## 1
Amino acid sequence: MPKYLYRLLVFSLLLSVVSVASIGVISYFIASKDIRKKVNEGNVQILLQNQMRMEQILKNVEMAAVQYINSSLVSDFLYDDLHNDDFQTINNLSKGLYNLHSIEGVADTRLINLEHDWMISNLGFTSTEDFPNQDLLNEYAKRPQNLFWLANTDSVSQKNNIRLVINLPMISSTTEAKALLIIDISQDALLSNLAQNTQLGSIYVLNRDREPFLSSSSTVRVQPSILQKMQAALDQTGYFETDAMAVNYRVSSYNGWSYVSIVSMEAITKDSKKIAFITLNACVIILILIAFAAFYGTFRMYRPIRRLFTMLEQFGGESIGFKKRDEFALIEERFSSLFSTGKDLQQQLQAQRGQVKEFFLLKLIMGQVTESEFSYKYETYGFGEKGKALGVLALQIDSLEDTRYLDSEKELLLFAINNVVAELIPADCILGTLLLDQSQVTLLLGDSEDPEELKGYFYQMAELIASKVHELLQLKISIGISRPFHRYTDAMDAYSEALEALKRRISLGNELILNYEDIETLNRNRVQPAASWSHFEECMVGGLKAGDATSAYEYFNQYASAILVKNVSFNDFQTLMLQLITKIYRLVQQQGGTLDGLVGTKSVMIRFMKLNTAEEITAWFKTELIPPTLAFLQGRIDSQYINIAHQIVELIQDKYDQDITLEMCAEQFRFHPVYLSRVFKKEIGITFIEYLTNYRMNMAKLWLRDSNMKITEIAERLGYTNSTGFIRTFRKAADMTPGQYRESHSRSL
């Protein structure tokens, strides 16, 4: 099978397989998700119904019990010292007590007088000693609640494990009850009201301690992992999955019991598997149909390619290695061979001509071409008319500050400027353009022989270039203009004159067009450094050595400004800055580093010598030289004292309950507080105050959880003058008050 036909067929099949498989998988997951959602919704409704039925039974019992104890008979004789002789009173109390048995779910009732030691139950009028567990009576009497429900999970020790206890009197100022009304609820009666649905799993009822005491399925026990998650649950309703089980739960606000529905994931996904089987069969059938359509359509689409391929084979034999490529490779090869050969040769010749011309001009500027050699090659490279006067324009970018360009784009900008100049000036007015050492150089041709007219003409061309560059690129540039000359070999001297004119920017400013003839030629004595210069220089080096960035930058600015105020030449300014670089180099070397490595260049000196203005030099110092030097020296200083942070941590852990401050640490370690704060934040990651507060709050949590100390005592031990400040800080750290924190942990225990 041809390779392109094979690829086209495989692509069609892969495209269809991916599409159909994606649709099938998405459909299956959507259906599976809907099934699980409906099952969960059903479980939630069943839980709600069971909760309402069971709570209705409990509330009926509770209401009947309250009516009984509020009756005049009970309120008149409950607290009396009754004996067997009080037959009529005992009979009346028993009759009302037995009437409670008619309520659904009531299995047994007891009316107990704790003061006079008598009890009425199904055994008749007896002593309280006949109660099975005297400790339970004492526990019930001491409870602060007057009415509460209990659910006992021990079915061996007690027949009825669901109980309502009412402490009497219900409205009393005393702490212990005088009498008790105890009603036991039949577990079987509650189970009969607990809905059972094997399809939706089992339903369990948990007491306040999250222990199961009722279950719709007596054979299935609650898994320990489910109980652990229920004990940790904080929401009133919720859903979670664990150990291949899906669990829905509701926590009653009435008595704190939890109603839990547990169903296996396998039962939920049973219908999903059927959907997956049907979806898989449908996808397979669709893929088979698409495969047949892909085969037929691919062969029909390939026919025109096959005819073109056969035609090209007739014009030229099969190329070497064709069997390893497809049909389009041979077609591309034939077309390239037929239509591109002549054009490629012409473009290569034109490109080489431009490069050779630029190289020849570069040799002319560098003084490496003789007059006779230039005259010989003049017409070959298409230069302008012979005999005209010449002039050199040297263009440099003043600064890239406050522009949209980066320093790394400077060479690209010069290249763009070179193209702009070449297109702007007519071909008969220019000898050529080139880029040379951070400058764009233009060799102009002049029609006049008058030096003043030539000077004005060159200045006019420079203004035109500056205006166009500003219009297109919005750059700050300056242009230096040489004196007119006639001998081509004088181009090197003219280039030097244009550069010398540009160096006057140090005193005249930027965005200038300077003519060499206008430069003052007064002899200047060599600039001698003033005493203030040396002072600023020494202070700057001292700031670097101490790692003080503010001092280093401040004294550098004063040093550079003091030099520029003296109206020095660019060469003198460059020399003074070289001396400063040498001192910085020596300072870094003494600390075991290299300045070239810090700045990230092969040679700092070479990079410095490419800077053409005082602004570029000062900006280079501030952005490329001083920052890495400061970082290196600060690192050396910080590494010697970094263990101070760990000593401060140990001090906090030893004296957290005392009045400890950063100033006290600074006095002990003999360092400035600001320095200690910076070192501590850098090493530990947080401030001194944050660490001290966090440590104190952690100790407070430990005392709240494991001790009986009062909140005021904890606040006093942690150094707080009043508990209000401690509570505010604790709330901010733990999102709850100390009392809430202690209550939540005591409840979990």
Note: The first helix runs from residue 3 to 69.
## 2
Amino acid sequence: MGSIPTQRETAFRSSANSGPTPGPSAVVRTSLPGNPLAPAAARKFVRAALADWTELGVPAAAGVTDRLADDAVLLVSELVTNAVVHAGTAVELLCRLDEAAPGEDAETLVIEVSDHHPSRAVRGEQGPPPPGTPEYGRGLHLVATLSDSWGITYRTGTKTVWARLPVDGVQAVQDIETYASEQALQRGLRAAEILAPLPKRATHDTDWINRGALSFLAEASDLLAGQFDEDLVAALAGQLLVPRLADWCAVWLDDAAEGPGRAAVGGGAGERLARVWHTSEHRIEELRRVLEKDPPRLPLAAGGAYPVPWPGAALTGESSGAALAYRLTAGGRVLGTLVIGRAGLVRFPDEVTGLVEDFSRRVALAISAARRYQRQATISQILQRGLLPSRIAEIPGVESGLVYEPRDQGGPGGDFYDVFQAGDGRWCFALGDVQGKGPEAAVVIGLARPWLRLLAREGYQVAEVLSHLNQLLLDDAAEAAAAAAAVVAVAGGQGVPSEGPTSRFLSLLYGELVPFEGGVRCTVACAGHPLPLLLSPEGEVRPAASPQMLLGVVDDVTYTSEAFELRTGDTLLCVTDGVTERRQGRLQFDDADGLAQALAGCAGLDAELVAERIRRLVHEFSERPPDDDMALLVLQAR
């Protein structure tokens, strides 16, 4: 596996061999693609392995600390980056935790990274770089710094770089001080912990960049890319830079985002000072006031790092220093500006300038992605409000309870509901589930719900409404297929693509309620939908309809309906398959009539309490969050 050097091993190692024969080991391995996603996947894999060993009580894992985990993640990130950049092949990663060998006091964590292009040298095998060349990401220098022994093993078609880290139970490093309260600020920041302490930082910038710049940028990219709020991206940006690379940091966001060519950093319309940080928390508001009053300005042609004036003596005790501004640009549009400052310097070191420039590009991309997500979420929310009723109708003699939880809280789901008055003395209800999610589902809901209301108000019976809606969906699908064929023909194709248009299947539970003295007459039809359940005051539960074909599948189906009376205390429960098919491993909520049993336990509760109890039981059925939309409607005769 490469941890025992062979005669073909190169001279790049710090010990003659990888050490004595270890005791029992815990081993995990994985294969990663040779692309830029590999380092991030490797970091997650190593963290997961260490966490699993600790949770499982592996004896050798007793000494695993946060510092060891950080060192291991940093080391594997550099080595996998080396393999991707210099070999370009698939990467094999092995992580092994060895118990202490005879004569040794400490357990050992062994990491091996293999590629399949041994004819290419790894970073560090070349001669020394020319004077003044930044030493970004010196992988083997980092390996030598962190490990007690390491080496490179060549085999036919494979080159393996291995390293051994002692598991000596050192105390974990203290958590990084934070100024923002968002939980996201706590995640992923330890990769940058290896920065030198503030008092000696200026003399250690180069050492830190040699040791971990690539991992810092990679971890920062992972953290920033997972945020969907541009203000939180700005907060995270400052949190990552202060105090690691600067004494203070400010981020302006251009809400207008009108593109390049804006001269002012913070003075133009639509521009706002979103976030400000300082190593001394009590100076944050002071710095904000100074920057809002006199924001630095960049010329139109400014690119990269641009020196801007120091805020001056307005910052108590910081009469001089260096400040740099970076435009945050993505897709040719100026999204904002990042400004950093460090007291007591005439100019920033080149290594820091280049690193922050790379970092600023990642910030800009994250802000752009967050804005796109927010725009889409806003559109989806508006669409959702248009697809669902603003309120459900009140039915004389009937209490109702409703639960609607789309899987994607920011967008339209595939489930819908409606309760409306269809005419004098008639009310109708519907609960549907469209195949698919998002815009395609919204199109079907946008067709189905208005047609349901129109057909019901035109006096069509329950079964007739389903038959007409089924034909409508089939006709609409045929029109979509014809349109697709026309597009392909215009484009020079031979016909409709083999997949054809998206099928617009709809499961629907639809019913009509007619109150009368002493109860409510209910007529229902169920097309491919979970059957409604009827609960008596005595706790007896039975299905209230029979299963029939989905809507939008075939055009020669005849739908039928069933009628019954809801007497005082009777409860009708209607749900979508997000309830019945809620999973816990291989089990589903409705296995062995689980929904009927849950409903039987609701005897004596009013409609809203029945809906809430079923919702709670569905959520408690599994520790995992729901993986489907969920809707349920409870109708109870008073």
Note: The longest strand covers residues 333-343.
## 3
Amino acid sequence: MAILEENLNKTQVPEQKAVFESGNEMAATAAAQINYHLMGYFPITPSTEVAQYLDQMKTRGEHDIQLVAADGEHGSAGICYGAALTGARVINATSSQGFLYMLEQLPTQSGTRFPMVLNLVARAVSGPLDIRGDHSDLYYALNTGWVILMASTAQAVYDLNIMALKISEHSEVRLPVIVCYDGFFTSHQKRKVMYFADRKVVQDFVGPVPTGYHNVIDKNHPVTIGAHMLGDDLINNNFQQSEALYKAGEVFKQVNREYALISGRSYSALDLYLMEDAEVALFLMNSAGESAKDTVDRLRAQGVKAGLIRPNIIRPFPAEELRQALKNVKALLVGERADSYGAHGGNMTHEIRSALQVDKDNKTIVMNRIFGVGGKDFFPDEAEEFFKLVIDAAEKGYAEKPFDYFGHVPGESQGRLQPVIEPMTGEVYKTGLIKVMQDEATGKLKVKMPPLRALTAKPKRFAPGHGACPGCGIISALELFFKGIEGDVVTLFQTGCGYVTTTGYPYTSHKQSFVHNLFQNGAATVAGMVDAFLEMKRRGEVKVSDDFTFVMVTGDGGMDIGMGPAIGTALRNHKMIMVEYDNEGYMNTGSQLSYSTPLGHQTSTSGVGKTQKGKSGHHKDTAQILAATNIPYVFTGTEAFPQDLIQKAAKAQWYAQNEGLAYGKILISCPLNWKVEDRVGTKLMKTAVDSCFFPLYEIESGITNITYNPEAKNSRVSVSEWLKAMGKTKHLIKEEEMLKLFEQEVERRWTRLKARHEHEVL
């Protein structure tokens, strides 16, 4: 129920404090003050920080939100929906491909009318990959049935997050709400922000969790949610949802009035800047609208009646407000950070034209420019170029070019980059130094290889100049692995540090064909490549004397979000290799916890403080999971044991070319996020193996073989020797109970592995 203004006027304006913070920090601050019940999350740049800040706050005891690390954004959306079904208050944050990955869950939440708040930190949608901010992900949200608020500043992120929950839970709305703000522009840039000193002010404003609505934990009123509907019922459901979404526009105004009384800040449906008598205007969303205000001021000083429109809400679309704002405007340019390909204009342009079509007296010329995609900066002088276009259209009475891109440039043939390295083929990589033979009696493979020094003659697969951090184990471990691979390869990297440090248009560190696909879908993509290649070869359509070896490289948590496609690919047994470099976290997005992060290890989303001591659960044993799919070959390796790793690579290639899928897990160090010196990676890997935390073994045709036994070598060390060597785990030495659990789990897995090694049937 709305709070009466006369009652609010009698109350004292609450104290607010000034801070210098970013949009992501303020989204987390608002969430912590509201004290949501749950956040299901998955890291993706640039929204990742929201969960990180909330984790930091939780270690300090500043909120009680349950932070649930999902296996991917699709899973995070399911976690959030499930929590909402109980009547809990739920929040999430995502960006770009992550938003698209959860997209199919979103209409279910709005269609069944369960509130929540989602911060969409807008970022370019692949492909190709660009991690900076535009609105191509936002436009996918327009038909989800969610209310969409637009936050142009860090202050607006804080304020609209508070307003969003109240709108979402309103009795006449009961819909989830998106708060959208620009990635890196608003999410990371620090600005002066005011926030309520006492979180009770925020909690009193949003009020207690509304009661009287269906949920799954009311045992006295059992409900069925999401039952199949036929058209006669679905149209009624859709009509009610539509009415609620339009009602949200009125509720937004009501909540804004209430919030203005306690904060002194107001957010109308449209932020109209000098529009009272404007004859030419721009329509810009979020941060670009803020950048253009200075341009409007300059033009006004020159006698040009310029104005600016920036929306604070786009779902429901503020059509009537736009009609009023544009009554006397001769020409409007709609600048959009995303295109609606093939539609002769972006989504907002078409919605504005549709809104004006209803007003028969409106003669505004509406033109569109697509700008700033992929986070391309937008400056006041570029806003001035926009105004030149609308001034010209206003004077002529028509737009010479109603739709175009702004900021694109034609390529010049003389500037074309020339290859620095001649293409390398299997001839240079097929050295004959490594020979793999199958034992006819046992069926097992034997690898004959020369001393390591001889293999240095084999060319590297990566060119110099990659951008990996000093001491990063990815490149060195993969180079060592590829020493065991003969001939041509086609390599796919899922998103991760290995990818982002080796390619960046127009440059690449890869000497042979390379593909990047999404974080989660590398295995399926390589499976398609393999089978298509083999089929074209069978038909005689490609003339290749020797088969390619197709390799998928994953890491940085890629076998969390990518586990489903990986399992499917393994069960189909495609002729390929999966290699996982395991650095025990999502390092490419800022060292968040992964399911491969071990118990108690510190990451940016498993902080160490008075209320928590690092990650709460044990690490995932991916090698054993893949072994359960009965693929021909599984191995573990590390560069600390180079001969072992190269031999296993050679075996993996043989199996990939002759029998089916091979999977390998390579433990690598990440000095930056493990908090160790750059030079100690190899020593750390050896200690991990000698402590039996990371055993070296292979599973060949279902039979387990430990390839290095530290007990037999009399070199086993305690797990604490490994843990105390890293800054991320030093605290565990003092946490006796957690250390004991860690040691017990390492011993349990090692004992089971030895049993499998000793008994072939296990």
Note: The first strand starts at residue 16 and ends at 21.
